[in-house]
Amino acid sequence: GSDCPEDWIDCGNDNCIADIWRCDGDNDCGNFKDEHDCDSLPPKKCLTSQFQCLEDGHCIPETWHCDGEHDCEDGSDEHSCENDTHCHGFKCKDNHCIPSTWKCDGRKDCPDGSDEEFCSKDLCTATEFTCSSGTCLESQKVCDSKKDCPDASDEGRLCSQACNATQPACSHNCRRTPKGPECYCNEGFRLGKDGKTCEDVDECLVEGFCSQQCTNRIGSYECSCMEGYQPVNNSCQAS
């Protein structure tokens, strides 16, 4: 029997690919099995679960449409997203769309700051992978040919691209992802908008990290209590 996850295509050459890559015009299997029996699909016609880039007609997963990142070479997957109902990242209150990993990271990326509202500490860490569904996943489970995210967003055709010398130098670390090699940061840092520089996260800007007083440190933070109070189990009580 097939060792591929349910609803995935068994290429017959020890490769498994998600069904969304079937009949997209690319040889994802390596033996063209995913491009066989596609006569029912017109040339460059994407599946209902895909978005078609305007300039080259390339098909990408629909969840990459309006997710705050440019996946089409012409950037058409991020056009007209401010008033679009298809935001697959985090939708700000003013309708701007930003990558979901920027929500509750200690920095206001939405013009109205709504990405830092109602935050708690129960978020994906800098060393974890954020599934499109919002689920947190250990980095080592990404691109391992197993469907670990509920929506299978941890696997994709670009997983085969490894980090190498041709990639922009990452400040901290590099990992394989369904969108190709990606820089990621150590705990207490966030990835800058250049996609490679790691910047300190000011945890003190996120409500709830400390009971009373918070002091930001490079890569961490320190909680303390006001005069007349003493720290007890990560909170402050009257002494």
From TrEMBL:
Q: Which UniProt keywords apply?
A: Disulfide bond, EGF-like domain, Endocytosis, Glycoprotein, Lipoprotein, Membrane, Receptor, Repeat, Signal, Transmembrane, Transmembrane helix
Its Gene Ontology biological processes?
Answer: receptor-mediated endocytosis
Q: Which GO terms describe its molecular function?
A: calcium ion binding; hormone binding
Where does the record place the EGF-like domain? Answer: 200-237
Question: How is it placed in the membrane, per its record?
Answer: Single-pass type I membrane protein
PROSITE patterns for this protein:
ASX_HYDROXYL (PS00010), EGF_2 (PS01186), EGF_3 (PS50026), EGF_CA (PS01187), LDLRA_1 (PS01209), LDLRA_2 (PS50068)
Q: Which InterPro entries match?
A: EGF, EGF-like_Ca-bd_dom, EGF-type_Asp/Asn_hydroxyl_site, EGF_Ca-bd_CS, LDL_receptor-like_sf, LDLR-related, LDLR_class-A_CS, LDrepeatLR_classA_rpt
In which broad location class does this protein mainly occur, judging by the first location in its UniProt entry? membrane
Its Gene Ontology cellular component terms are: apical plasma membrane; receptor complex
Q: Where in the cell is it found?
A: Membrane
Which residue pairs form cystines in this protein? C4-C16, C11-C29, C23-C38, C66-C81, C92-C110, C104-C119, C124-C136, C131-C149, C204-C214
Task: Cite the PANTHER family for this sequence.
Answer: LOW-DENSITY LIPOPROTEIN RECEPTOR-RELATED PROTEIN 2-RELATED, MEGALIN, ISOFORM A
Family, according to the entry, reads as follows: Belongs to the LDLR family.
| Protein name per the record | Low-density lipoprotein receptor-related protein 2
Q: Which organism is it from?
A: Araneus ventricosus (Orbweaver spider)
